[in-house]
Amino acid sequence: MKPAPLDYIRATSVAHAVQVLAENDGDGKVLAGGQSLVPLLAMRLSQPTVLVDLGGLGELSYIRDESGHVEIGAMVRARTVEISSLIADAVPLLPVALRHVGHVTIRNRGTVGGSTAHADPAAELPAVLRALDADVVVTGPSGSRTIGAADFFQGFLTTALAPDEIVTALRVPKSAPGTRVAVQEFARRHGDFAIVAVFAAVELGASGEIAAARIAVAGADQVPVRAAAAEELLAGQDPSPAVLRAAAAEVAGATRPFDDIHGTADYRKKITAVLARRCLEQALPTAERSSAA
Amino acid sequence: MTEQHLPPGLIGARVRRKEDPRLLTGRAQFVDDVALPGMLEAAILRSPHAHARIVSVDVSAALELPGVFAVITGAEVAQACALPQPVIWRLIPDQRMTDLYALAHDKVRYVGQGVAAVAAADRYVAEDALGLIEVEYEQLPAACTLDEALADGAPLLYENWPDNVSCRQTVPKGDVATAFAAADVIVSETITYGRQMGTPLETRGAVVSWDPFTDRLEAWLSTQSPNLARDLLGEVLGLPVERIRVRTPDVGGGFGNKFDFYGEEVVAALLSKRSGRPVKIIEDRLESFVANAHSREQRIEVEVAAKSDGTITGMRGTVYGVLGGQLSTVGIGPCWAATVLMPGPYDIPNVEVTVVGVVTNRSPYGSYRGWGQPKANIAHERIVEKLARELGMAANDVRRKNLIAPDKFPYPSPVFYYDSGRYEECLEAAERAVVDRGWAKRQAEAAKEGRSLGIGYSFHIEISAIGPSRILNQAGLQHSGFDEESVRIDSTGGVIVRSGLSAMGQGIQTALAQVAAQTLGVPLDSVTVLTGDTETNPYTGYGTGGSRGAALGGGALLRASTRLREKVLRVAAELLEASPDDLVISDGRISVAGTGVGGRSVSMRDVGDATYRRLDGKLPLGETPTLEERDVLDPDNTAFSYGTTAVLAEVDRETGRVQVLDYLIAHDCGTVINPMIVDGQLHGGAAQAIGGALFEEIVYGPDGQPLTTTFMDYLIPTASELPAFETVHLTTTADHIPGGFKGMGEAGTIGGASAITAAIDDALRDLGVGVVQLPITPPRLLSMIEAAEAGGTATDVEEQS
Lengths: 293, 801
What we know:
The structure holds 2 protein chains of 2 kinds.
Chain A: E1 7-10, H1 14-23, E2 28-31, H2 37-42, E3 50-53, E4 63-65, E5 69-73, H3 78-82, H4 85-90, H5 93-98, H6 104-109, H7 112-118, H8 124-131, E6 135-140, E7 143-148, H9 149-152, E8 153-155, E9 158-159, E10 166-173, E11 180-186, E12 196-204, E13 210-218, E14 225-226, H10 228-234, H11 241-253, H12 265-283, H13 286-289
Parallel strand pairs in A: 1-3, 2-3
Antiparallel strand pairs in A: 4-5, 5-10, 6-7, 6-10, 8-9, 11-12, 12-13, 13-14
Chain B: H1 20-24, E1 40-46, E2 52-58, H2 60-64, E3 68-73, H3 74-80, E4 107-108, E5 114-120, H4 123-130, E6 134-139, H5 146-150, E7 165-173, H6 176-181, E8 185-193, E9 205-211, E10 216-221, H7 226-237, E11 244-247, H8 263-275, E12 279-282, H9 285-291, E13 298-306, E14 312-323, H10 333-340, E15 350-359, H11 373-391, H12 395-402, E16 411-412, E17 417-418, H13 423-436, H14 439-448, E18 452-464, H15 469-475, E19 483-489, E20 495-499, H16 508-520, E21 527-530, H17 549-576, E22 583-586, E23 589-592, E24 601-603, H18 604-612, E25 627-633, E26 639-651, E27 658-668, H19 675-695, E28 725-730, H20 747-763, E29 773-774, H21 778-800
Parallel strand pairs in B: 1-12, 8-29, 10-11, 14-15, 20-21, 27-28
Antiparallel strand pairs in B: 1-5, 2-4, 2-6, 3-5, 7-15, 8-13, 9-10, 9-12, 13-14, 16-17, 18-26, 19-20, 19-25, 22-23, 23-24, 26-27
Helix pairs in contact in B: 10-11, 11-12, 11-20, 16-17, 17-18, 19-20
């Protein structure tokens, strides 16, 4: 378990990093926390010719309050986002979701840009980006462009990122005040990748009805899945047990899960419905929950 | 702690472990910390195929890589060795042996089997060189599962065998046919126990230096059995053992895996001889999942005949051991143990169990803490639970009806004599503790919230203090089972104990120090226990396995220390002008009994000085100088520990997840040397039992590719998945062992899965679910729940949820 020979370059700027990637013609890999990449290197599953370390790029380490959205630099550590009061106020789903990422030591190293670019379908952050319609800012030789989360995640560990582009920031829309959030994650052990996780952000109307719901699922498809049909079903409804059950079924219906050693596709689909229902129950007022189980 | 200075009482005292300051502050020395001048690092090329013929191996490009010093192939290993890799447990006389060498040369029979090895300047270069070795394989159809291996026309792993069955043996007791013919009720079950392994934090490793001029071989091994390893190195390499020295640094967890003798030790030796330099091989984690001994995988058929009052009159069974592509050091041993111990703690007059060892294209099946006993346990405990359901009795009432009564010891099981025990008292101690902890109330309250909690019990026995050498030899063991210990008091009264046992985190140094300190009457701090060097330390028979270290090492040391104490008293008597019979030793001072604090006394230092330095007028005439004794304990019998495990668990009926909420063990291992160490051993074993019951499984794909080769996929439970453990102790001494000690190193692993499955069944009792496959993963349990619900009780469940 020792990496194959490679060149290591510590980038001095985003432009420098992009230049090195461009020069290496797709054989470069970006080190941005290393929580997934380093094991892949050690097992020689990934054998890049050059490793571009973004660790020194302070310019990618910021959280900014913009109008309508929060911008998070790509090299911000997951733990920093998790404990940021700005994020807690503006995007309450994010810290709740990030608590399920590995363990604290992993979150201390892993970055938001790294997780986004790695695009593991079981990862929490991509699902949250998908739920909240966040944008991914990427930079390449010809400058920056913005890709919506719906278009960014294309398949298993596959994104819209070109080989000479790097993720430089995330733009996450602010949630409406009073938005209720919940995460239900089913993992075999605390800190494991999710077998399935469901993320919900729900806005309630004046009379307690569901004004709008945003729901995404990790681990039940090749990409993070947005449960649009369930969101439509919930909009304008009172959160009765029957409504939540119906919505949960729609969430499961939106997924195309796969088999692996931890669960079959069929199992994933079943627990997606269970987790979606529990997630909605958790997000909604307590009074609605007791009659729901 | 004050009791450290207060013998009597050190044996039985909860003293802190002497090892821990060093281990916890990073001062321990593991095999990877060994660095010798000129040392090379090696890596092993492993088979990517489950079953293939090796057509050719071309190492020329690897040899040309700068930094590469030596390359060796399987054919060269076979040529260089006097014997193939040894199998020491030869229990079945007509067993077909696999007789393979440290690296494969004709065929590969499992993914991960070594094919060639490289020694290079460092591990990076060695791994680069592996990529340059060209191996041409001719792939063969594989037999990757038990059923595939047993099927008609199955691919043969060994073409000179008629089938893939290595051995078959039936162990009888009494008249089973009559018992079954006369039974009121017969219940049967087939249990599938998944493939699992011990996963020590420190993977295996070896540093070997074979000096080409002196022909001396020095090895540093992360091993539980240094003397065995030394003897086997000698046999395999054709080298007299006096030229072999095995040193064992701190061992970062053994769990049985490191009892076995592996090919890497031989490969490191041969690479060292070739290169003329010391060679280090450290197994990385990825390799450990294919090269470390696998274990546990068995299919067990069990049935019992019983009277309508629950009395079991007969037991029949078959254990299919899913062996790998070659036999490990312990051969059929663990599967045989599962077979002969299947009646467990129950007084069953008629027993007939058969073991069938089947080779498959999987990694070899070797030792793992428990060594067959968790499977014997799941067989007798699952069948007792099923019998209870069949008869409408409480499972513990069926247990009580059949547990061996105290007056029946020594009890003849099909093979072993169980030495002593108060089984029913132990079961009742657990039942009382469960009442005290209010589990039934928790279960009832949870039910009101729609949650499903269950309470499960199991009873286990554990063979320990292995063991009587001649009897083990008669059974087929190609090694001994005694233990030798030496104890020396130096010229200043300090005590040095030398042991051949390995310190692998279990606390053996502390336990032995407690025995010596109490017996000699000295403070614990004055005792140093040295382990880990075959050149300077005594010979331990089997190794540090079979739950024998504390029992046999402790017993031997107790006897040696007792004799040494007598000599101390004789010398002190001379110094004090008193009779030895009138003297007492306390806290390192020898005084005349009854003379009080101000009475005449001498210190252990005075005795040391009189024995080593200033002898004249002090050392009694006729006494030899020096203060040293050794003892060898080859016990007349093994010793059987036992215990009751009780588990409170919750089942999530919608996902199949099981959470262990509370866990209790009532246990008896004879005289306890250190209750804290015993509790720690029980806790650690229980954690592994939880892993085995709920999480851990080595999964192979249909093509024989292992799919669980990292800790992301092979799931060992972490602190988050474990409950607090409670222990309750009984003491029934082993009267044939000095000190009355019984071993207990494997106890926690044995009964855990049985209690957890019983708790799951109890949580789902309205559905009639009976778990028969381990580990019971969430998908497996959910499908059992769904099948049971579809069977007609779906409405009830709907109301509950």
